[in-house]
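Good morning,

Attaching, inline, the C-alpha coordinates for the sequence recovery test we're adding to the shared suite. The designed sequence is right after.
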Protein backbone atom coordinates (compact mmCIF):
# COMPACT_ATOMS: atom_id res chain seq x y z
CA UNK A 1 0.00 0.00 0.00
CA UNK A 2 1.28 3.47 -0.88
CA UNK A 3 1.31 5.91 2.02
CA UNK A 4 0.18 9.41 1.05
CA UNK A 5 1.39 11.85 3.66
CA UNK A 6 1.00 15.17 1.85
CA UNK A 7 -1.14 17.38 4.09
CA UNK A 8 -3.42 20.23 3.15
CA UNK A 9 -6.35 22.29 4.40
CA UNK A 10 -9.76 21.48 2.94
CA UNK A 11 -12.96 23.50 2.81
CA UNK A 12 -16.38 21.94 2.22
CA UNK A 13 -19.39 24.06 1.28
CA UNK A 14 -22.80 23.82 -0.36
CA UNK A 15 -23.12 24.58 -4.08
CA UNK A 16 -22.87 28.29 -5.00
CA UNK A 17 -26.25 28.21 -6.75
CA UNK A 18 -27.94 26.81 -3.61
CA UNK A 19 -26.08 28.12 -0.54
CA UNK A 20 -28.82 26.91 1.83
CA UNK A 21 -28.80 23.32 0.49
CA UNK A 22 -27.43 21.95 3.75
CA UNK A 23 -30.07 23.68 5.91
CA UNK A 24 -27.23 24.07 8.38
CA UNK A 25 -27.01 25.50 11.83
CA UNK A 26 -24.38 25.31 14.52
CA UNK A 27 -26.76 23.22 16.62
CA UNK A 28 -27.63 20.75 13.86
CA UNK A 29 -23.97 20.25 12.93
CA UNK A 30 -23.01 19.79 16.59
CA UNK A 31 -25.84 17.30 17.04
CA UNK A 32 -24.78 15.31 13.96
CA UNK A 33 -21.18 15.15 15.18
CA UNK A 34 -22.31 14.12 18.68
CA UNK A 35 -24.48 11.35 17.27
CA UNK A 36 -21.76 9.77 15.13
CA UNK A 37 -18.68 10.76 17.14
CA UNK A 38 -19.69 10.67 20.82
CA UNK A 39 -16.12 11.34 21.98
CA UNK A 40 -15.77 14.44 19.80
CA UNK A 41 -14.22 17.60 21.21
CA UNK A 42 -16.41 20.60 20.37
CA UNK A 43 -16.29 24.27 21.32
CA UNK A 44 -18.47 27.14 20.10
CA UNK A 45 -16.63 30.42 19.52
CA UNK A 46 -17.13 33.75 17.79
CA UNK A 47 -14.75 34.36 14.91
CA UNK A 48 -13.66 37.98 14.55
CA UNK A 49 -12.26 37.50 11.03
CA UNK A 50 -15.18 39.43 9.51
CA UNK A 51 -16.75 42.81 10.22
CA UNK A 52 -19.61 41.03 11.96
CA UNK A 53 -18.57 38.20 14.32
CA UNK A 54 -19.53 34.74 13.03
CA UNK A 55 -20.41 31.81 15.28
CA UNK A 56 -18.09 28.87 14.64
CA UNK A 57 -17.93 25.35 15.99
CA UNK A 58 -14.39 24.09 16.46
CA UNK A 59 -14.22 20.32 16.60
CA UNK A 60 -11.93 17.33 16.64
CA UNK A 61 -13.21 13.86 15.77
CA UNK A 62 -11.71 10.43 15.26
CA UNK A 63 -12.69 9.28 11.74
CA UNK A 64 -11.02 5.89 12.04
CA UNK A 65 -8.73 4.31 14.63
CA UNK A 66 -5.86 6.70 15.41
CA UNK A 67 -6.95 9.13 12.65
CA UNK A 68 -8.20 12.49 13.90
CA UNK A 69 -9.66 15.48 12.08
CA UNK A 70 -9.62 19.01 13.49
CA UNK A 71 -11.86 21.54 11.87
CA UNK A 72 -14.19 24.48 12.10
CA UNK A 73 -17.79 24.77 10.98
CA UNK A 74 -18.79 28.35 10.28
CA UNK A 75 -22.37 29.52 9.98
CA UNK A 76 -22.07 33.06 8.55
CA UNK A 77 -25.69 33.32 7.40
CA UNK A 78 -28.96 31.52 8.19
CA UNK A 79 -28.94 27.99 6.77
CA UNK A 80 -25.51 28.49 5.16
CA UNK A 81 -22.37 26.76 6.36
CA UNK A 82 -18.87 25.84 5.38
CA UNK A 83 -16.57 23.41 7.12
CA UNK A 84 -12.80 23.64 7.05
CA UNK A 85 -10.33 20.93 8.00
CA UNK A 86 -6.79 21.82 8.97
CA UNK A 87 -3.62 19.94 8.05
CA UNK A 88 -5.06 16.60 6.92
CA UNK A 89 -4.19 14.10 4.21
CA UNK A 90 -6.50 13.64 1.24
CA UNK A 91 -7.45 10.24 2.64
CA UNK A 92 -8.47 11.73 5.97
CA UNK A 93 -10.40 14.53 4.24
CA UNK A 94 -12.18 11.89 2.15
CA UNK A 95 -13.25 10.02 5.29
CA UNK A 96 -14.73 13.24 6.65
CA UNK A 97 -16.32 14.09 3.28
CA UNK A 98 -18.02 10.69 3.19
CA UNK A 99 -19.45 11.29 6.67
CA UNK A 100 -20.57 14.80 5.68
CA UNK A 101 -22.23 13.50 2.51
CA UNK A 102 -23.89 10.48 4.12
CA UNK A 103 -24.82 11.84 7.54
CA UNK A 104 -25.32 15.59 7.40
CA UNK A 105 -26.14 17.16 4.06
CA UNK A 106 -29.53 16.72 2.43
CA UNK A 107 -28.17 15.54 -0.92
CA UNK A 108 -24.85 13.91 -1.85
CA UNK A 109 -24.54 16.29 -4.81
CA UNK A 110 -24.64 19.32 -2.51
CA UNK A 111 -21.03 19.08 -1.29
CA UNK A 112 -18.19 20.91 -3.00
CA UNK A 113 -14.65 21.23 -1.72
CA UNK A 114 -11.36 22.96 -2.30
CA UNK A 115 -7.92 22.28 -0.85
CA UNK A 116 -5.08 24.67 -0.13
CA UNK A 117 -2.68 22.35 -1.98
CA UNK A 118 -4.75 22.62 -5.16
CA UNK A 119 -5.08 26.39 -4.79
CA UNK A 120 -1.31 26.75 -4.31
CA UNK A 121 -0.89 24.98 -7.65
CA UNK A 122 -3.14 27.50 -9.43
CA UNK A 123 -6.53 25.75 -9.51
CA UNK A 124 -9.25 27.56 -7.57
CA UNK A 125 -12.17 25.58 -8.98
CA UNK A 126 -14.17 23.77 -6.25
Amino acid sequence: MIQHTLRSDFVFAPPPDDPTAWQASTASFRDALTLDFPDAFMEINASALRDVPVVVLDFEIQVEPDVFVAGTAAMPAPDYAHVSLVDVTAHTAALFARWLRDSYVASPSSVRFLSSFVMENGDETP
